[in-house]
Amino acid sequence: MPEPKPKKTLDLNRREMPKQPPEVRRHNFDEVALGYTVETAIEEARRCIKCPAPKCVDNCPVEIDIPGFVKFVAEGDFAQGIKILKQKNCLPAVCGRVCPQEEQCEETCSLGKKHGQIAIGRLERFLADWEATQGEPEIPEMAPTTGRKVAVIGGGPAGLTVAGDLIKLGHKVTIFEALHKMGGVLIYGIPEFRLPKAIVGREVEYLRSLGVEIVTDFVVGKTRTVDSLLEEFDAVFVGSGAGLPWFMEIPGENLNGVYSANEYLTRMNLMAGFLFPQFQTPIKRHKCVAVLGGGNVAMDCARTALRLGAESRIIYRRSRQELPARLEEVENAEEEGVIFEFLTLPIRYIGDENGWVKEIECLKMTLGEPDASGRRKPIPIEGSETIYPVDAVVCAIGNSPNPLIAATTPGLELGKKGNIVADEQTGKTSRDRIWAGGDVVTGAATVILAMGAGRKAARSIHEYLCSL
Amino acid sequence: MFKVLEQRMIVPNIHLLRLEAPAVAREAKPGQFAIVRATEDGERIPLSIADWNPEDGTVTIVFMNVGSSTRKLAALKSGSSIPTVVGPLGNPTEIGLYGTVLCVGGCYGIGSIYPVARALKAAGNRVISVIESRSSYLFYWEDRLESVSDRLIHITRDGTKGYRGHVGRLPEIIKSIEEPIHRVIINGCTFLLMRGSDVTRPQSIPTVVSLNPIMIDGTGMCGVCRVTVGSVTRFACVHGPDFDGHQVDWAELLQRRKMYITEEVVPLRTSRCEEHAIRS
Ligand SMILES: Cc1cc2nc3c(=O)[nH]c(=O)nc-3n(C[C@H](O)[C@H](O)[C@H](O)COP(=O)(O)OP(=O)(O)OC[C@H]3O[C@@H](n4cnc5c(N)ncnc54)[C@H](O)[C@@H]3O)c2cc1C
Ligand SMILES: Cc1cc2nc3c(=O)[nH]c(=O)nc-3n(C[C@H](O)[C@H](O)[C@H](O)COP(=O)(O)OP(=O)(O)OC[C@H]3O[C@@H](n4cnc5c(N)ncnc54)[C@H](O)[C@@H]3O)c2cc1C
Ligand code: SF4
Ligand code: SF4
Ligand code: FES
């Protein structure tokens, strides 16, 4: 732990957060980043110049009063700090860890050009973690009950936000979640070493303590339709995420050992496969894993495979510059020893005599003109076939919304990719009394955007309920 | 938590499990399944819904004790609870007026074909049920099947009841029926489904099979249940579990089902002592 520097020689630079050393952490599932100490948190917070028109706030999708909470950290009044934070964000311990701060709040921080942006995410995490050590969280002020009932579909960040906001406004809220655990991607997707599951569990318990009713093992569209819920509830919010995995659609994809990222991560996280056989979801101990894709999901899969003792390789068709994953996670993966094959496109899986994948054939690519996404389009180089030996492949090339709810809810307008169409400002869908937000509307995006969408929808639902 | 109302072995190695799961019971249709977890740290396994009662909110499952999770279910006592019963999942079996339908069931499929036969009968079909097992003492629910079938035909490996052999004798059975068969529906282990489809193919009788690949979520999220049907990849949990038996890539399905064979053996060995402890 770095010693707090004496005050006289005030250090203006951004404080680093200690991490487990790469050679240690690649063998365990414990959290990589260790968090600020009280001293470093205060030092970091003191750097904030409290801009009168703070640009950081403009770029936070849930509009946290950043200079406000940072000021209290600087003063060492953490209880006040967390209070301000929680006015706008019901999942600070999560956002402080997984928000892409470099493209959000911190991107626009005025200190960026000089000594480095204020580490807003780290301070947020610090406060949330501090609160967790202070016993039961304080129950916020609750509005008197209104007698109105809202059904929230999906226990991911979007659903949790809607539930948290509406319960405080006095409405009765029930969350219906398909899986046996709440949290959505926070539980079944993002691995333990980036987001400890206990943190998500704590946030869910907090909502429960506020009176949110939680029904797990309930698949809306199957166990009950949205229309049937509308008979009992005044409003429905759909926050069912983007859970349908894409595959490459190349030969050999159904060989054993070819996983979707969802399957691989679910076995590891939700079913605690890394504790097998104590938890009885079987997971193979692979020796040589290839992960296809370049986003956060791909990084998580590759780093998980590494921790299970495999040689782990990312295969990505563009170059390092175009990687959509957070830079911090790319660097973490590189430090830990994940091998990157850039400009490489898988074209075929090759199986052994028992139907297990043993090799993956790829083409090398070169970058051409920028495409619709503004990134340079990869073009295959003829005759550049390369074969990599593997005993597992994880396909992490994307997800789209699960059609289950759309298919069982007549009149719900859908976009091209099967996403539910909802108004950006209110979350209203084409159907009366149905709101939607998060990945099910935008396609796979981020935790904070899902929460932002949940916040707006909650506001609109509240207006509607008050008009009744 | 879901209450276990009844759990007992009905014939050697095959168990009946009756659960209190009102939400599932309210919506269940023939051919659908539920995903069940026996313990908080246990895996999620798919099991067909063999019967249900929307009035008292109960769901009945028939399962074969084959591995670590079904072993845990087999150790459940009435009055205990299990953490997960989610469903009804998958598409219901298509029930139409076809004419004469052969409902074929083996092992757990004798149970799960029952509601299918019942619905087909109610829809006005002539229903002939064919059940298969190693020996006559392994049949169960014969009275139930009889009550919804125009005829009940047995096949036993050892010849102790009905035809001797296995589902391969289906062509003779069809011949002996002396009336056109308009549809065959098969529930049970993968071999039964595959062999059954093989024998109806030459006669071009539409054949529906209820596939049972490995599953995790049962909602289309993980893709582990993918099967190739008519050279297209389908997710059995959301596009099935019923498929055209003449279009299924059986070799692939059998291979995918074996995926975790070595891993499954580990808990089987390690969980024994623990379970003895629970029992005593
Ligand atoms: C591996 C991985 C790593 C990621 N890393 C980051 C990161 O570092 N930073 C970041 O900001 N974002 C990250 N993301 C993206 C982020 O997690 C998602 O954008 C976010 O979780 C979306 O929230 P949501 O509430 O819309 O949906 P989800 O989190 O997907 O939650 C939807 C919930 O609805 C449930 N559900 C679905 N259908 C039904 C139904 N019919 N009935 C009942 N319940 C249903 C699902 O089971 C699920 O629990 C990552 C995603 C993955 C997969
Ligand atoms: C849609 C669907 C419906 C199903 N309905 C039923 C049902 O109603 N009753 C029922 O008993 N099972 C049913 N199954 C199969 C059931 O899910 C598996 O038997 C179960 O997952 C086995 O879990 P386990 O942990 O006990 O065994 P595992 O430890 O997973 O397997 C142990 C060993 O048994 C083998 N095995 C597993 N299942 C079977 C099987 N069905 N037949 C032959 N060998 C097998 C495995 O290959 C493995 O070698 C269904 C499957 C699906 C997909
Ligand atoms: S929620 Fe995310 S974007 Fe908003 S301040 Fe916190 S870290 Fe920044
Ligand atoms: S922009 Fe940066 S320096 Fe200004 S208030 Fe926000 S965090 Fe503080
Ligand atoms: S079981 Fe996961 S997609 Fe079918």
What can you tell me about this protein's structure?
The complex is a heterodimer of chains A (468) and B (280). With 468 residues, chain A is an alpha/beta fold. Chain A has helices spanning 22-25, 38-46, 55-58, 66-74, 78-88, 92-98, 120-132, 157-168, 185-188, 197-209, 226-232, 261-268, 296-307, 327-336, 404-407, 439-442, 447-467; strands at residues 149-153, 172-176, 213-215, 235-238, 244-245, 258-260, 288-292, 311-315, 339-341, 344-351, 357-370, 376-380, 386-389, 392-395, 399-400, 434-436. In chain A, helix 5 crosses helix 7 (120-132), helix 6 packs antiparallel against helix 7 and helix 12 (261-268) crosses helix 13 (296-307). The longest helix of chain A has 21 residues, at 447-467. The N and C termini of chain A lie far apart (56 Å). Chain B has 280 residues and is α/β, with parallel strands linked by helices. Chain B has nine helices and 17 strands. Chain B has helices at 22-27, 68-74, 109-122, 142-148, 170-177, 190-200, 236-239, 250-257, 261-279, and strands at 2-11, 14-20, 33-37, 45-48, 51-53, 58-64, 81-82, 84-89, 100-106, 126-133, 151-156, 163-164, 183-187, 207-210, 226-229, 232-235, 242-244. A seven-stranded mixed sheet of chain B has the order 12-11-10-9-13-14-17, with helices on both faces. Residues 265-280 of chain B have low confidence and may be disordered. Chains A and B meet through strand 5 and helix 12 of A and helix 1, strand 8, strand 15, helix 8 and helix 9 of B. The structure holds flavin-adenine dinucleotide (2 copies), iron/sulfur cluster (2 copies) and FE2/S2 (inorganic) cluster. Residues 215-218, 220-225, 235, 237 of chain B line the site of FE2/S2 (inorganic) cluster.
